[in-house]
Amino acid sequence: MKWRKWNRWIHRELGYLFFGMSIIYGISGIALNHGVARHWNPGIITRSVSYDYNRSITKTDVTREVIEEILEITGEKNSFKQYYFPTSDDLMIYLKGGHINVHMPSGTISVTRVRNRPVFNEVNYLHYNKPKKLWTWFSDLFALGLVLMAISGLFLVKGKKGITGRGGLTTLIGIFIPLIFLAIYLWF
User: Fold this and answer.
1) What average pLDDT does the segment 147-152 reach?
2) What are phi and psi of 163, to 5 degrees?
3) CA 69, CA 63: separation in Å to the nearest integer?
């Protein structure tokens, strides 16, 4: 078998094998880029609702009965876990799947519910390598596969559209783009 046939075979088979991984890392990479930029949290969905307690309270006023009254107002009676005071003006009540913040001087209650974002939570779990163990080895194999696919891809097309022609120019552009961004962000 000629080397071009082997090259095409390697490129094709690695492409099939790592299709799923490419989708996982592509989706989670986009999500993580925007999560880092604080546009949104890729792993969770938060929903906040406000209520009015109709009176101000102090830290010394907070008893089990007051906590239960706040839980009744917000409809979170069955979700209570614990409470504490992050500041002298705020009462934080932890819930299963969220929390309640009470600004005690104003009586303003804010309930924040938190849940995992479907799909994004799972792909981010894999992207961050949280499973460890065998997943680390498979991720390393994927990274090596990407390198092999990139190199073998350079030699798929012959002639003026291949690496010795237009493909070579496009490859150089693709190499220089990240270098330009590095220069802009690190050195200027």
Assistant:
1) 95
2) -65, -25
3) 10
Q: What is the pLDDT of residues 31-74, one digit of tens each?
A: 888 766 566 778 888 899 999 998 999 999 999 999 999 999 99
- Which of 17-21, 27-31, 59-63, 131-135 is predicted least confidently? 27-31
Those residues with Cβ within 8 angstroms of residue 94's Cβ, 6 or more apart along the chain or in another chain: 80, 81, 82, 83
Task: Give me the pLDDT at residue 32, please.
Answer: 80
Q: What is the per-residue DSSP string for the chain?
A: --HHHHHHHHHHHHHHHTHHHHHHHHHHHHHHHHHHTTS--SSEEEEEEEEE-SS---GGG--HHHHHHHHHHHT-GGGEEEEEEEETTEEEEEETTEEEEEETTTTEEEEEEEEEPTTHHHHHHHHTT-S-HHHHHHHHHHHHHHHHHHHHHHTSS-GGGSTTTHHHHHHHHHHHHHHHHHIIIII-
One-letter amino acid at 10 equals I
Find where tokens 């705020």 sit. 90
Domain boundaries, the chain: 1-42+126-156, 44-116, 160-188
